[in-house]
From TrEMBL:
The keyword Protein transport does not apply. Residues 50-71 are annotated as: Disordered. This is Cell division protein. SUPFAM superfamilies: Sporulation related repeat (SSF110997). Residues 50-67 have a biased composition (Polar residues). It comes from Hahella chejuensis (strain KCTC 2396). GO terms for molecular function: peptidoglycan binding. It comes from the Bacteria. InterPro entries: Cell_div_SPOR-domain (IPR052521), SPOR-like_dom (IPR007730), SPOR-like_sf (IPR036680). It holds the Pfam family SPOR. The lineage of its organism: Bacteria, Pseudomonadati, Pseudomonadota, Gammaproteobacteria, Oceanospirillales. Residues 102-181 form the SPOR domain. GO terms for biological process: cell division. Keywords: Cell cycle, Cell division, Membrane, Transmembrane, Transmembrane helix.
Length: 185
């Protein structure tokens, strides 16, 4: 055997002060638990009205408080359970809450992009087609040399159908532009 294995390291002894402090903490904790056990429980909501609590400050009124507390516990505290079925509220019809019908029919178009190259517009049209929407590419000439290709989805006759299509487009990270147009008859 080697000398390192044969020599034992001396055991470290715990100081008496550490024992004393640990015993003191344990005794304080036990005293705290005993103190909590001896504290009387308090009631959070006694249900006694403020006039009855004022009577408790008078001497020999503890019997009165007990009588009022038992009387009130026999009667229901709330009467709306009885009143609610008997009442009925009829809301008046107000013109501001009815939707206005316009004489002009409006259609909605969603512009999803505008590109200088036709191939880029076709790629976006195909991407939109995978979402189940029909898109068309419109050529816009600003001048003889300046040509743009718009990708549009629609027309939609109602706002709810347009919102449904917008949700599909946003799902594929396309933020469309809403365009209102009067319907041509």
């Amino acid at each position: 055997m080697s000398k390192k294995a044969a020599t034992k390291q001396p055991e470290k002894k715990i100081s008496p002060w550490v024992w004393f402090i640990n015993l003191g903490l344990a005794a304080a904790f036990l005293y705290f638990l005993f103190y909590l056990n001896s504290v009387p429980a308090t009631k959070l909501n006694t249900g006694i009205p403020s006039s009855a609590t004022a009577q408790t400050s008078k001497p020999n009124s503890s019997a009165n408080v007990a009588k009022t507390a038992t009387k009130e516990s026999d009667e229901p505290r709330f009467k709306f359970y009885d009143m609610l079925p008997e009442t009925e509220v009829v809301a008046p019809k107000v013109e501001a809450y009815t939707p206005k019908k316009s004489n002009e029919a409006i259609i909605y178009m969603l512009q999803t992009g505008s590109f200088r190259e036709f191939d880029d517009a076709e790629k976006q049209r195909a991407t939109i087609g995978f979402q189940g929407l029909k898109a068309q590419v419109e050529e816009v000439k600003l001048s003889s040399e300046n040509v743009w290709y718009r990708v549009q989805v629609g027309p939609f006759s109602s706002r709810s159908k347009m919102n449904s299509a917008m949700d599909r487009l946003v799902a594929i990270n396309i933020q469309p532009l809403v365009k209102k147009q009067k319907r041509e008859n």
